[in-house]
Each structure stands twice: as C-alpha cells, then as structure tokens.
Design goal:
Blueprint: H1 2-15, E1 23-27, E2 34-40, E3 43-50, H2 55-71, E4 79-84, E5 89-94, E6 98-99, H3 105-117, E7 130-132, E8 135-137, H4 145-163, H5 169-179, E9 192-194, E10 203-206, E11 211-213, E12 219-221, H6 223-230, H7 238-247, H8 254-273, H9 277-292
Antiparallel strand pairs: 1-2, 2-3, 3-5, 4-5, 6-10, 7-8, 9-12, 10-11
Helix pairs in contact: 3-7, 4-5, 4-8, 5-9, 6-8, 8-9
The chain binds adenosine-5'-diphosphate.
C-alpha cells in the first residue's frame, strides 16, 4: 500500500533514523480508528489510521499527549508524527508494550492521576478544540466553570442531539437542567489538567507495571469530571480510588456532580450511537432535577 511508504518516510524524517514498514499487525481494541503495530529496522510504532478528515482529530490528540507528557506525571505514548494523503490520515505513536500490572499498579495510577490534576491553568478549557470520540469538543478558555460546563459541554451536546433528531422530552428536560445548573455545580474548582475521556479502555499498565493512559480528550477543568468518568463504564480498581482520594480528597457533593459530569458522556454516546442512551440521559436529568426541587 502506498500509504505505508508515505508513513515510513515521515517517521524516518522525524526520527532521523532509517525506517521502512516491514510488518504491520492489525490490533483490536480501538473504538474509532484502525490501529496497527508497524515494525521494521528494529523499531516498532503504534499507528492509527482513519479517513483524511481525521487529521485535525489526530493533531489534537498528539497535542493532548504532549500536554500530559509535559506535566511529567503519567506515562503516555509519545507522539511521533501525523499526516494525511488522499485516502487516509494517520497518527504514529511510540509503541508501548503492555503488561497486566502488579499489586501496586492501581495505587500508582491513583497517585499519578492526582499529581496530573495538580497541574493547573489560569482558565478552564484549552489552547484548542479537540474531539470526544468523533464529536467535536469545544475548549474556548473561560474563567467561569459553571458557564463552561453549561455552554461548552452539556449545552453543546444537547444542541447536537436536537440536530440529530433527539427532540421532545430530552430537550425540555435538558433546558430545565441548564437553567438550574447553578444549583448543582456549587463548588469552585480550579482548572486541572484532565484526560477528558478516562474510561477503563483508556488506561493500562506497561511491562514494568507502571500505569499508561491513552487517547485523551485533554482540557483544563474540574478534576471530578475525570474521576466521574472512571466510574461510568466498568469502573477502575478499588486501590485506584483509595489512593486518589487519600492523596487528593474530593469535595463534598461529588456524588451529585458526578451525574452532572457523566451526563456529558451519555449525551455524547447518544449522539454517536443513538439507542438507549436517550432514555439513560433523561433518567439522569430527572434525578438531578429532583435534587433541586
Ligand atoms: P482509538 O482512538 O481507536 O479508540 P486507542 O488510542 O484507545 O484507540 O487505542 C486502543 C487500544 O490500543 C488501547 O486501549 C491500548 O490497549 C492500545 N494502545 C493505544 N496506544 C498504544 C500504544 N502507543 N502502544 C501500545 N498499545 C497502545
């Protein structure tokens, strides 16, 4: 395939090492892209391949990985290069050999995530927009977390849901929730560096049992939004939560805010996959509205 030659040439010019793909192995596990382990000249890389319009998504992912790398808190794959031709866009990352972790790995993940969350910014948002799944994620900097979550997170997904045909009850309930959000988001968080899409498929342990995180949707926000998402699909190990909470306790009222934060991901799943996520979103909103009555 011509694309292998183009990717090989780009890797070689970025790393200043000779490189030609000799072997490519299609890997499972990704939700959005086709992932390969490509190797040659005694080197190995992790490659994500998608349609040409995915270039901006890959560029944002590479920038997000660098932001986390620069925080020197959690291991992420180093981005090598990204590019595009008429048929494909690609992102090349350092290949990380994964292991199953040992008895300290989940504790390390909790402590390192707490350290990452202590990396802060002046504003909520980020230097650029990115994507959550394939959905655009708006990160216009804001000094006001409530407004940020209202407009750039829940409001954005609700508008998208309307465009996607999810009207009626979901929209009426959603509007009521947005109007009353100040009664639910009452804490004053600081803008912490967030992974942004921290479900159980986006962390692992490397071959020396250290935690690694993948596929971020980086922005600066309330750290509870990251913790909430770890609880959404499958959950993280108990040692992770005890280490994190011991090192960086959560504010009171987290159990309610967790639903406000996870609603964003459920609305995003509705927009990406449809199905029963609409019903789940309505149930979550009803629960939250009952809290403020
Ligand atoms: P997608 O963007 O398609 O969702 P991910 O970045 O989530 O893909 O990667 C899918 C899986 O591939 C991850 O869950 C992880 O197991 C593995 N993976 C991701 N990046 C690397 C890497 N750099 N080296 C080795 N394995 C990786």
């Amino acid at each position: 395939m011509k694309v292998w030659q183009e990717i090989s040439a780009q890797i070689a010019s970025t790393t200043h090492n000779q490189f030609l793909v000799e072997k490519s192995v299609l890997l499972g596990g990704g939700c959005i892209n086709r992932a390969y382990c490509i190797s040659g000249n005694d080197q190995r890389y992790f490659l994500k391949l998608n349609t040409p319009d995915s270039l901006t998504m890959f560029e944002a992912e590479a920038t997000g990985l660098m932001e986390i790398f620069q925080s020197q808190t959690l291991h992420v794959p180093m981005p090598i290069c990204y590019g595009q031709n008429a048929e494909f866009a690609w992102l090349v990352l350092e290949f990380i050999s994964l292991g199953s972790g040992n008895r300290d790995s989940a504790t390390k993940l909790g402590l390192q995530l707490a350290a990452m969350h202590r990396t802060t910014s002046k504003h909520f948002g980020w230097i650029r927009d990115n994507t959550i799944g394939k959905t655009p994620q708006i990160n216009t900097p804001s000094a006001n977390w409530l407004e940020f979550w209202r407009t750039q997170r829940l409001g954005y997904q609700l508008k998208l849901a309307k465009v996607n045909g999810f009207r009626g009850k979901l929209q009426t309930l959603g509007e009521r929730l947005l109007d009353n959000l100040d009664k639910l988001l009452t804490s004053s968080p600081i803008p912490s560096l967030l992974h942004g899409d921290l479900w159980s498929g986006n962390y692992a342990f490397d071959n020396i049992n250290d935690p690694v995180i993948f596929d971020p949707a980086v922005y600066y926000g309330d750290r509870e939004a990251d913790i909430a998402m770890t609880e959404l699909f499958g959950g993280f190990p108990a040692d992770f939560y005890s280490a994190y909470r011991h090192d960086y306790p959560l504010d009171s009222g987290y159990n309610i805010r967790r639903i406000v934060y996870n609603l964003y991901h459920i609305l995003n799943h509705l927009n990406l996959f449809g199905g029963s996520y609409g019903h789940q979103a309505e149930q979550m909103i009803n629960f939250l509205l009952a809290e403020i009555r």
